[in-house]
């Protein structure tokens, strides 16, 4: 454990102007407050914050950070208050300590909920001051170093949390040393047999080729010197965890991996980096698809370097990393290498786009668990780099789509996305983006996120935004439907219906507002009779709930406004007089995002933009037309196709047709595709005005007891 004078000397060694008095007072304060508390190892508890402060001196952080490191557990684990810290050590230290303090007073439903709530607070704090994250990482690093003293179940939980959250966070701010150590300790705990096996194989290789590394370094040094390049060359093994992860990703054995050794060439400037790369490539065979230029396109955490795989000296396949000395310091220490507070800059966190995106996920998530899930998606390595039409670079995870790209540009762009041009060609929104693609997002203010997007987007930001919209839209539909059902029920019983009466029974249904009751009725969680009974406790059921068996299917005549077969449809983007028809595979409706496909002998087929049939035309971009609905299209009736499962009992079909009729729909065709003792499976064509009209009908059907499943059909 660092002594008081040793800690102060360490800070003064890189920051001569550090507040020595405050550092001494914080050291003594932490020891007194933690007093006789002990760690699982049996050591005094105050040894932990002192060791955390020692780790922070390696990052050469300012004295406020060191003091906050000494005090980071005092508010959580002792009787110290944030105000006391503020009065003794100032606002800056108090703000950092408060950001690090876990939520101790929240009623937790589960361990995951607790973890997610704590992470939400950490995220909010580090968005204001990135030092909160640096201290948290130092805290986690020391806890991981002493993990072996904890009980097995706690070790496993902490190790998994470290791999899921804190190692990716360390990588995101470029702290490679911290990230690697966190991963190694967690890996050894969670997968001990795999870890020990890889370590044993590495030891064997080290013994077999103990002269190989010096020989390769010597040859590379000679290559650089012969070409007049001043360089520092080092060799290193990949860590056991990175080897194991690559084995998992590539489904390969240890013996199949050929780049276990990596060599680093550090030079003075960027121009020399490319000169050194030229020397390496001119003398040795390059391994295809192993070159990456992170200097021209840095990683989101600021990492810059040239990576290339070669068949190098001694005929050995190796990885070469070429960077400047400054790039190397940033690669190892990340944000701490160019600590912004030394220049007096504020809120370093605001310079990190990924932190802002995590904050947006925080605002859109419905619960802590969903937030944690989407955050994990957002924090892992970006592996695809695409460009906007203006040349701005957007980093995305592997298998990202134009919708992910749209949300990465801005939330409003994602919400109003109707289509995308990839390298100048209109492509489906589910297209997987490749490195170097130029992506132009087409938007419309009349559009909104589609529930279909959630099936193929991969970024946490996109998933959170789509799910937020779906939740809000479904709730709006349930509220409208629930209010209609309640009004009809009360009217059918000749009872007065008023919202004032509903206010008095909110607690009966654990509702905070009248809309909550409407939504629960619309969703089918509460019946209209339950609400009526709560408002009129002494009322006895008369007509309500009786099964009406006299209802028969009602097929209304089509509206006069229905577009006749062969009549030109009002679609924007078509040449006047061009033959056009709606595709029978997806039955597009006004409100759907649409695309035109030129067909042989039949003119233009109108498809929804996410129709699976479009994949057949992926290699024929010349047949794609950028089209949109015209205002006149809203005046006619259109066919929407549904697939549903109906209870096989008297009155079910009558209830179905009446529900559709009451929502101003008209059954154009009905086909029973399967029948069992309990259910009918139906395919139903309904005449509707637009997508919203069909969605309203679906919501009404979902609320019916006779309908067990309903969805829009597509071939």
Q: How many helices?
A: 26
Low-confidence stretches: 103-111, 339-351, 543-568
Q: What portion of residues is helical?
A: 40-55%
* CA gyration radius, whole angstroms: 32 Å
Class computed from helices, strands and strand pairing: alpha+beta
Instruction: Return the average pLDDT rounded to an integer.
Output: 80
Globular, elongated, flat, extended or rod-shaped: what is the shape?
Answer: globular
How would you sum up this structure, described in words?
The chain has 26 helices and 21 strands. The chain has 715 residues and is α+β, with helices and mostly antiparallel strands. A hairpin with a 2-residue loop joins β9 and β10. It is globular, with a radius of gyration of 32 Å.
